[in-house]
Amino acid sequence: MTDETPAPPAQGEDAPGDDRAGDASGGGPLWRFVRELLIIAVIALVISFVIKTFLVQAFWIPSGSMEETLEVGDRVLVSKIQAGPTGIDRGDIVVFEDPGGWLPTSTEPARGPVLDVVVSTLEFVGLAATAEGNHLIKRVIGKAGDRVECCDAQGRMSVNGQPLEEDYLYPGDAPSQQPFDVTVADDSIWVMGDHRTNSRDSRANDDGSGATGSVPTDHVVGQAMTLVWPLGRAEWFDNPTTLTSVPDP
């Protein structure tokens, strides 16, 4: 029996049983962890931005114009898939950009330069709910060509001659304190808040013809599909039967 002694490893090779293999990518375990965490964060931000831009965006409610359906401080998810003339129905709750002059000039509260950047970034990528800003949220009462009028002998509003039973109105509110009879402009919608006495909507911005109070459909951001906060009031929004049964003009 010959006594064979293992030859020493060649220069640059690891000895048998030595687990100290070099990391071809460089850096230690901590750097690898940080790098992977950064990659995951970037991917999450990109996905969130795409979702917010094309699919769903969160908004929070700063006013009482849609009470009691939506209250101050509520958070809603708005689907952007339904935006556009073919995706909007009577009864939908929609978010839309100010057509011009509907909203008073407002000043954002001072949060400091650092917090402003953080909040703006989170809103931009969709990780924070967006305030109304230059947006409004109302209920669609009429579509292009619809005749919307108020009020009949029973104090009801009607669309294309059909009276509405508006059980979504704020308790004690009349359908409208001001009478009107308009035809909704082409490629537009007629919108009103559920809290009629506290809503500056199509009625307040119209010249009596229906033209200036109608909101162009290309201003619609999307349809509010669900209330997500507070959790105790979370719900999916359904179109009221009184509006889904309205005949076309």
Summarize the structure in short.
The chain is built from three helices and twelve strands, in the order H-E-E-E-H-E-E-E-E-E-E-E-E-E-H. The strands form two sheets. Strands 1, 2, 3, 4, 9, 10, 11 and 12 form an eight-stranded antiparallel β-sheet that branches. Strands 7-6-5-8 form a four-stranded antiparallel β-sheet, with no helix packed on it.
CATH superfamily: Umud Fragment, subunit A
Helix share bin: 10-25%
Order of helices and strands: HEEEHEEEEEEEEEH
Show unreliable segments: 12-25, 124-132
As a whole number of angstroms, the C-alpha radius of gyration is: 29 Å
Mean pLDDT across the residues is 79
CATH topology: Umud Fragment, subunit A
Into how many domains do the coordinates divide?
1
Structure description:
About 9% of the residues have low confidence. This protein has a single domain, classed as Ribbon (Umud Fragment, subunit A), CATH 2.10.109. The chain is built from three helices and twelve strands. The chain is an alpha+beta fold and 249 residues long.
What secondary-structure arrangement, pairings included, does this model have?
Elements lengths: L28 H26 L1 E5 L14 E5 L13 E5 L15 H13 L9 E9 L3 E4 L6 E3 L2 E2 L16 E4 L4 E5 L22 E2 L3 E10 L5 E2 L4 H4 L5
